[in-house]
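Customer escalation, tier 2.

The customer says the design service returned an amino acid string that "doesn't look like it belongs to this structure." They asked us to rerun it and document both sides in this ticket. The original structure tokens are below, unchanged.
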């Protein structure tokens, strides 16, 4: 990368042109006097001390007091890791503040569905869903598209994947303890693509384009917990339940505790791992809407196309029926399920 490009990128991060130039020059020279920096960088002598003081305040330069005063560049890895953490914290704070403002005007449950134009933009969104997921990712797609997600899937070892595709064999990069694989049936409609991350994002589209460069291509991007909970329901009842499991989860190898967002994913894991299993449930009591936090053993489950719930026996021996988001007939509406053993 050329020096001019680096300077422009540093300016985007909040440095001035002179500050960017001074830091780059210090990295080249090592610990130096201000006069040496002026000669090498071309920064006017009248500005160099202010520039170096500013870099010191921003964490790019250390000052070694003495006669003469010396300036040492801070290791870029340290500088940019700190900057990244600060920026992520700021972004999260701004996002939460603006989201609160948005909800105060538009309400909590406005479904958001957007049209995504172009195959590359669709692929980028699919990768983002996997990258940002914290609990689980559900995927139904032809293997042709699944292969394009290989790198992102390989990076995520701390979440659960439930993947339905037209597998011929199990590739090594999917033969992991946190992955459940199912081979889809032969019906063409079963090869529509759904990619769902937690209850945060969903992406769906129909047939893949034969020529990505020439054909117009559209996909749909959804964001709304209750909307996505419906998509998760369809994923299981339309796709996963009509497919054949070819690789179950390797439950004993999983690092615990781990979290699940969807009740049907929880039951799918319990079917393969066996009962009883100790879990913690965080959610709300259905009748009062008060917050609920229960810990106990799952001793049974009910799973049909219409209902999905587990029976949890708490530490006092009382049994509770626990469902997922939108539960009406259960005792608890579960929003988070934590498997403890």
């Amino acid at each position: 990368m050329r020096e001019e490009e680096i300077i422009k990128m540093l300016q985007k991060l909040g440095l001035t042109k002179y500050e960017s130039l001074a830091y780059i020059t210090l990295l080249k020279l090592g610990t130096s006097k201000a006069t040496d920096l002026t000669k090498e960088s071309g920064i006017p002598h009248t500005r160099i001390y202010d520039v170096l003081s500013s870099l010191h305040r921003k964490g790019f330069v250390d000052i070694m007091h003495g006669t003469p005063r010396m300036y040492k560049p801070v290791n870029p890895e340290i500088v940019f890791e700190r900057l990244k953490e600060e920026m992520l914290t700021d972004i999260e704070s701004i996002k939460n503040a603006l989201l609160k403002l948005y909800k105060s005007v538009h309400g909590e449950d406005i479904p958001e569905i957007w049209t995504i134009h172009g195959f590359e933009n669709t692929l980028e969104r699919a990768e983002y869903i996997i990258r940002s997921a914290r609990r689980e990712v559900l995927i139904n797609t032809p293997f042709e598209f699944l292969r394009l997600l290989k790198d992102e899937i390989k990076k995520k070892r701390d979440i659960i994947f439930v993947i339905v595709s037209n597998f011929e064999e199990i590739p090594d990069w999917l033969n992991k303890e946190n992955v459940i694989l199912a081979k889809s049936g032969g019906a063409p409609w079963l090869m529509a693509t759904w990619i769902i991350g937690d209850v945060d994002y969903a992406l769906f589209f129909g047939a893949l384009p034969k020529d990505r460069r020439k054909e117009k291509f559209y996909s749909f991007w959804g964001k709304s917990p209750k909307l996505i909970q419906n998509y998760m329901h369809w994923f299981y009842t339309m796709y996963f339940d009509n497919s054949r499991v070819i690789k179950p989860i390797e439950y004993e190898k999983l690092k615990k505790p781990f979290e699940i967002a969807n009740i049907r994913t929880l039951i799918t894991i319990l079917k393969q791992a066996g009962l009883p299993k100790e879990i913690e449930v965080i959610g709300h009591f259905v009748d009062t809407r008060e917050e609920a936090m229960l810990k106990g053993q799952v001793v049974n489950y009910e799973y049909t196309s219409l209902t999905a719930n587990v029976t949890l026996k708490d530490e006092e021996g009382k049994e509770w029926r626990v469902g997922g988001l939108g539960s009406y007939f259960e005792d608890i509406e579960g929003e988070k399920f934590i498997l403890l053993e």
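Tier 2 assessment: The sequence is consistent with the input. Residues 115-251 form a domain with the Endonuclease; Chain A fold (CATH 3.30.870.10). Residues 236 and 264 are 7 Å apart (CA to CA). Sent an explanation to the customer and offered a walkthrough call.
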